[in-house]
Write a structure and sequence with these properties.
Blueprint lengths: L3 E2 L8 E5 L5 H10 L3 E5 L3 H8 L10 H9 L3 E4 L10 E4 L14 H13 L5 E4 L7 H10 L11 E4 L18 E5 L2 H11 L5 E4 L3 H32 L3 H8 L23 H10 L6 H27 L8 E5 L14 H11 L3 E5 L23 H4 L4 E4 L8 H6 L4 E3 L14 E3 L1
Parallel strand pairs: 2-3, 2-5, 3-4, 5-6, 6-7, 8-9, 10-11, 10-12, 12-13, 13-14
Antiparallel strand pairs: 1-9, 7-8
Length: 437
C-alpha cells in the first residue's frame, strides 16, 4: 500500500500509552502536540509522580516539553491499570528483551495484554509498538486479548506499528519519522491510520501485521550485519596498519552503492543487539538457519574482548601490565549524548577490565551512577573529570563519544588514550598517546 502524507491532521483521539520510557514518552509528546488527549500508564510510581510534576525522566527530552504537556491539561500518567478502559486507543510500548538463551522474552507483552484484557471494551483499538518477531500480534496478542470475551476484528481492533525512535538524533523526532502501520483487517488499519494521523507527518500502511513486524526487524538486522562487517574489518585493518575510519571516509565519497557504517566497542541499546535474534528464533521454527545474523552477533558480541586486548597491548608497549593499572572508561551510555545504558558495551568493558585485574572507574556526564540491571550491578558513580584526576590514570578509554568531552584536553592530560570511536580524529598534538581500538 502507498505511503500517506498527512497534510491535514485527523480528529484528535483519546490515546492510552502503556510504558512511559524511551518510546512511550516521545510518542505521547507528539500526540499532545497534535491535540490529542493522552493517558500514560507505567508501573514505576516514582517516574509517574515525576512526569505528572512536569519533570522529564529522560535526558534527551527537556523538562520544558513535559511541563508543556502537563500544562495543556491533555496529558497525565497513572499506575492504575483499571483506567485502561477509558482511552479509545491503547498503544503498547514495553520492553522486548532476550532470555539468557538468546530467545525472545515476551513476558512484558504477555502481562500487558493480560492486563488490557481485563478492562478491554468494545470498539477500542490496541496497537503494539515494541519490536518483535513476525507473528507476535496475531499469534500471541490476539488470543490473550480475546480472553476478554470480545472478538478481534468485530468487537475490538488490533494493529502493529513499530517504534523507530533514535534517542539523541537531532535530525529527526517522532513526528517526522515515517510510521509503518499494519493491522489485523482493513477496518483496524483505517482506524489506526486515523489515530496516528493526529501525531505523525507521514504514514506507511502495509497489508498485514506480519509485514509491519518484519519491516522493523529487518531494519535493525540490516544495521547489525553491516556494523559487524566493519567491526571485523577494523580488526583486519589494524593488523595491516590501516585506519578503518579513513577507509570508510574515502569509500563514502562514492555517490551510489555504498552506505557508511562505523565500528565501535560493541553494540548497545535495546534494538540492534537484540532484535536480530528474534528473527533467528523465529527462523528455527521453519527449519532455516540464519547464518549472517548469527555470525554478526558473534562478531559484535566479541568487540569488548578485542578492545581489552588492544588495551593490554598498548600498556605492554609502555612496559605496564593491565593488572593493577588504573583505567578510566569515558562514557557509560551506549551512544553519544544520551543517558541510555541498556546493553551498553561499556558495561561489558568494565567487567572484563576488572576481571583482568585493572582498577576501573568511569565518567559520564549523562549517567551520574549505575543502576541494577538484569546482567549487571556495578554499584559505581561517575568520577569528576579534571586534569589532575585524569593524570592519575594509566589509561583513558573512550567508549562513548559524547559531545560534552573536549578530546584535545583529554589527550593532553592523559598518559594513554584508547579510542574506540575515532573521537580523537581531529586531535593533532599528542597522537603518540592515542591507540585506536
Amino acid at each position: 500500500m502507498a505511503k500517506q502524507n498527512n497534510t491535514k491532521k485527523t480528529k484528535a483521539p483519546y490515546v492510552g500509552i502503556v510504558g512511559m520510557g524511551y518510546v512511550g514518552l516521545p510518542l505521547a509528546r507528539e500526540f499532545v502536540r497534535g491535540g490529542a488527549k493522552v493517558l500514560g500508564f507505567d508501573v514505576n510510581s516514582k517516574m509517574v509522580a515525576k512526569v505528572n510534576r512536569g519533570q522529564s525522566p529522560l535526558k534527551h527530552i527537556p523538562n520544558s516539553h513535559v511541563k508543556e504537556m502537563v500544562k495543556s491539561g491533555r496529558f497525565r500518567v497513572t499506575e492504575k491499570m483499571s483506567q485502561l478502559s477509558k482511552p479509545d486507543t491503547i498503544l503498547i510500548c514495553v520492553p522486548t528483551p532476550l532470555t539468557e538463551n538468546r530467545e525472545p522474552d515476551m513476558f512484558y507483552i504477555e502481562q500487558t495484554c493480560k492486563t488490557i484484557a481485563k478492562y478491554l471494551r468494545k470498539d477500542q483499538l490496541v496497537v503494539l509498538e515494541s519490536t518483535t518477531y513476525p507473528g507476535t500480534t496475531r499469534e500471541l496478542m490476539l488470543p490473550i486479548l480475546e480472553t476478554s470475551g470480545l472478538k478481534a476484528g468485530r468487537d475490538f481492533h488490533l494493529a502493529y506499528s513499530p517504534e523507530r525512535e533514535d534517542p539523541g538524533n537531532k535530525d529527526f523526532r517522532t513526528a517526522t519519522i515515517p510510521k509503518v502501520v499494519g493491522a489485523l483487517d482493513k477496518k483496524s488499519l483505517q482506524i489506526a491510520l486515523d489515530v496516528y494521523g493526529c501525531a505523525i507527518d507521514e504514514l506507511v500502511p502495509v497489508d498485514s501485521c506480519e509485514i509491519a513486524e518484519a519491516a522493523k526487524i529487518i531494519e535493525n538486522t540490516y544495521r547489525c550485519v553491516n556494523i559487524a562487517m566493519v567491526n571485523e574489518l577494523k580488526q583486519l585493518f589494524d593488523k595491516m596498519g590501516i585506519d578503518v575510519w579513513e577507509v570508510i571516509r574515502a569509500a563514502g565519497t562514492k555517490p551510489f552503492g555504498f552506505k557508511a557504517f562505523y565500528p565501535g566497542p560493541g553494540l548497545g541499546g535495546h534494538c540492534i543487539p537484540i532484535d536480530p535474534f528474534y528473527l533467528t528464533w523465529k527462523a528455527r521454527q521453519y527449519g532455516m538457519p540464519t547464518r549472517f545474523i548469527e555470525l554478526a552477533g558473534e562478531i559484535n558480541t566479541d568487540m569488548p574482548e578485542y578492545v581489552v586486548s588492544r588495551t593490554m597491548d598498548a600498556l605492554n608497549d609502555q612496559k605496564k601490565s593491565l593488572k593493577g593499572s588504573k583505567v578510566l572508561v569515558l562514557g557509560l551510555a551506549y551512544k553519544k549524548d544520551i543517558d541510555d545504558v541498556r546493553e551498553s558495551p561499556s558495561l561489558k568493558l568494565i567487567e572484563l577490565l576488572k576481571e583482568k585485574g585493572a582498577k576501573v572507574d568511569y565518567n559520564d556526564p549523562y549517567v551520574p551512577k549505575t543502576h541494577k540491571q538484569r546482567d549487571y550491578d556495578l554499584k559505581m558513580k561517575s568520577k569528576p573529570l579534571t586534569a589532575a584526576m585524569l593524570k592519575t590514570y594509566d589509561v583513558a578509554l573512550i567508549a562513548t563519544d559524547h559531545s560534552d568531552y573536549d578530546y584535545k584536553w583529554i589527550v593532553k592530560n592523559s598518559k594513554l588514550v584508547i579510542d574506540t570511536r575515532n573521537a580523537t580524529a581531529d586531535v593533532k598534538t599528542g597522537r603518540k598517546k592515542i591507540v585506536k581500538a
